Amino acid sequence: MPGDASPDLAVGGFSDRGPWVVDPDDLTWLRGLGPERERARNQVPRWLETGHVPPLGRLSRVVVLVGWALAAWYVTDRRRGRSASRRGLSRRLRSSFARLGATYIKLGQILSSGEGMFPEELVAEFKDLRDRVPAEPFEHVRRVVEEELGRPLEAVFARFERRPIAAASIAQVHAARLRTGEEVVVKVQRPRVAELVRKDIEAMAWLAPRLVGRIPVSALANPPALVELFAETIVEELDFRLEAENMLDVGRVLAETDQRAVIVPRPHPRLVTRRLLVMERLDGFAWDDVRAMKDAGVDTEAVLHAGLVSFMEGAMLYGVFHGDLHGGNLAVRPDGRTVLMDFGITGRMSERKRLAFLFLLVSGTTGDVMGQLRALRDLGAFPPDTDLDAVFRDLGLDRPTVDPTTLAADQLLHELQELTKKLLGYGARAPKELMLFVKNMMFLDGAIALLAPDLDIIGELEKVHTDIATRHGERLAADMGIDVSEATFDAEAMKAAMGVSPDVERLTYRDVQARRETIRRRMEEHRRR
User: Fold this and answer.
1) Which is nearest to 398 in space by CA: 298, 264, 496?
2) Which H or E run includes 184?
3) Contact of 185 with 174, CB cutoff 8 Å
4) How much is the mean pLDDT over the chain?
5) Rounded-to-integer distance, Cα 315 and Cα 498, Å
6) What pTM does this model have?
């Protein structure tokens, strides 16, 4: 750390010299946020009550727009081949979601991060909802800013760009300069978005039970559980003070783990409210601009490794991690450090869940399947009274892992359908924190293709495991009550979990893509028969 670096680097993973110094004890907006976070979470059960009549006006608009999309697809695209049909349906749904506004745009953005969980055509189409959201008129932005600050916009900002840098579902971001001279970005909540989100969740909760068994995508097999997960995810995004606290907490994890290759912007000490967030401006290369990174001498494999380690450290040691990793929320600076942005969705695990998560990871890398099931139950993926021995037998977890590329398409489809049916029969659900973690891991999986396509994936996982065990072994041993040195990385277990033959010595992302293409082609041929 440079000798003239900012003193707040002791409390946060920030840039070396910021426009101001963050002192957690001097942040007036931070006081009393614990009850506010709890109050936000307590809204979710009320939103999900299905016994009352849903907001009929809003529900009618949703039914009309989505129904029109489905009808148009049925008439024009349905018979054009599986992939073309899915592209047509995805395009029409994306258009409907954009017209429905904030809640559905946010839902589409979350679906767009689900590579491997949702059909690739849906994921590709919904990515447009990340950066093609219509901006609010500047008059609306000005009104929110002035209502939140209680004074004219010009009294605080010497310059405020009318055109936003980015426009998303809940808010949009503008570049600005404070009257005190600092260059900042300003996140402004869209007007009336909180009321719209509440009405939409109530309508979704009423509709979800009526969709059970009607959606032929395994990841969407339990609509009520997905609506609950979505509500839990979006509710805290409506208060930017909670997002600013998330920034501080993720920054604190980076500082305490001495992970200086990843940084977060500093929130302003005074200019943070429920609907307004002013923060330090940090620029960098776009996440997918690999050529510019390499031209600047950035080691993209090191960027990837630092991202993996810091993400795992936050979850394992503190139960806190950025919950919405995607290219739009990341930038890479010329010195190779990654900037994390947009902390509206942040994973936060209780101590009990954090320990369960630790056991899940350790049992996963050592091949302890029953340990994984116990950890999943403790995380909330299964009801507390679930007979795990029965699950173990029923899911065939005592049998050798089968390489999916060796299965015929109808066999693979049958296996997936049976697995989904059995899991739902046991009351399995996706806890919010686990879902966010898995979604991020899928993004990082894709990041390997972008930043290091020839990296040995199994070797990198072993390197991450060794790095964390070396740096934090004593703490993890104390947390778990085990000798972590005995929990050695089991490459054979990892190969089995990935459906790879034990004799495979090296697995690059190109190899993974080839395997996926084999499975995709086989399934497509099966559908045409």
Assistant:
1) 496
2) strand 183-189
3) yes
4) 84
5) 22
6) 0.85
